[in-house]
Amino acid sequence: MQILIYSLFLFYSISFVTKRGQILNNIYVQRFFLSSFILLSLFISIASGIDYIDRSVYTSQFFTATQDSFGNFLEKHNDSLMFYIITFLITKITSNPEVYYVFMHLLFLYFLIRGLYLIFNKNLYVTVLAFFIFLNFTIYYSYTLNILRQGLAFVIIIYSIGCILNYKQKRFYLILFTAPFVHWTSLFFTLLVIVSRKIKTYNTFTLIIIYTIFSTLYLTHTSDIFTNQLSFILPTNSEGYLSLNRIEQYGGSYKVQFWFFNTIFFILLMSPLIFKKLFALNKLKNYDVFFYYYTITSSVFFLFGFIPFADRIAGYSWLLIPILLAQFINSIKISNYLKFLLLIIMLIVGFISTPLNGRFF
29: which residues sit within 8 A by CB, 6+ positions away? Predict the structure, then answer.
């Protein structure tokens, strides 16, 4: 199976650096890759099983939904109302938890791929590139196999951003305000998207200053001074996640490796906004908007870096990386041989860090 997967990825990498419109790189070939990648993602989701880490909780809730009335079920699970409404509706179609996860993953993929397609101005080539990067990005599997509610909330926001960039304002608000009802942590990203609509230009130097300030709070372990004042926004069921036992279980707070991971990509992804002559600017439409999202969501993560499972807050910035990387690779003025090398490096990293190394098959 691994040979088949990485042969497909290698074929895609060769296709990507081939001149567009030729036999190895045309719209039909891109549709083939997109369909293949969707099937691959779905296969990994199925192969991971119904008891994989947090999935055991979702599976238990699914079985509860099959036996409960609609009102009783939502009374027990009212913290992520929309997610549990979807769960209950699926139980009216099937009582098989494996089929339930297929439905949930297809819903996730719809919002993600449709959102990417709209964000990239309906450019299928860049959409497939972004999805390829997601599949070789370990964070993708955390939010599709394990942290399902948060992953679904994220892609709903991505789809809503795609809607507003294509002037679908009514659909934008309808979809966007669904996200916090899927997972409450998406509320700050939802508000960020709304606020960003009022900003006409994004000053790179200002974003660097913002990132530096919040990085300093994180590295000096002082961000909790400020975020303790914001405890009122946390839901009542979050107290268990903030206990000392949780911090010990998690291995401490303010993890330097998270800051390092975040900052490496901040520096890399900032380069198209600094060294503009090295990039085809016509291929960077809305890049500054997503870099702004990355900076602010990273800053929110730095504020809450003292809590256990802080990486789940960081996920909102980390999941933006493949979107920015796709535009980065597509627009950088280097030879196709070097672009091919970049994709191969991604494959190697993906092989080392993702379930595609055969963990589930």
Answer: 15, 23
The distance in angstroms from the start CA to the end CA of the chain is: 8
Are the CB atoms for 257 and 219 separated by under 8 Å?
A: no
List, in sequence order, every beta strand (DSSP E) within 167-233: none
DSSP 3-state of 335: coil
Beta bridge partners of 332: 279
Tokens of 144: 């599709």
The pLDDT value given to residue 20: 86
220 three-class SS:
coil
Whether the pLDDT of residue 244 is over 70: the answer is: no
Instruction: Report pLDDT digits (tens) over 111-130.
Output: 999 999 999 999 999 999 99
Contacts of the segment 119-127: beta carbons below 8 A, 24+ positions apart: 119/158, 119/161, 119/162, 119/165, 119/286, 119/290, 119/323, 120/326, 120/327, 121/165, 121/285, 124/27, 124/30, 124/31, 124/34, 125/16, 125/20, 125/30, 125/330, 126/326, 126/327, 126/330, 127/34
Residue 228 CB contacts under 8 Å (≥ 6 apart), including other chains: none
Question: Do residues 137 and 321 touch, judged by C-beta distance below 8 A?
Answer: yes
Q: Which two tokens stand for residue 31?
A: 């549709």
165, 115 contact by CB (below 8 A): no
Residue written as token pair 């963990």: 359
Count each helix (H run) and each strand (E run) in the chain, helices first.
19, 0
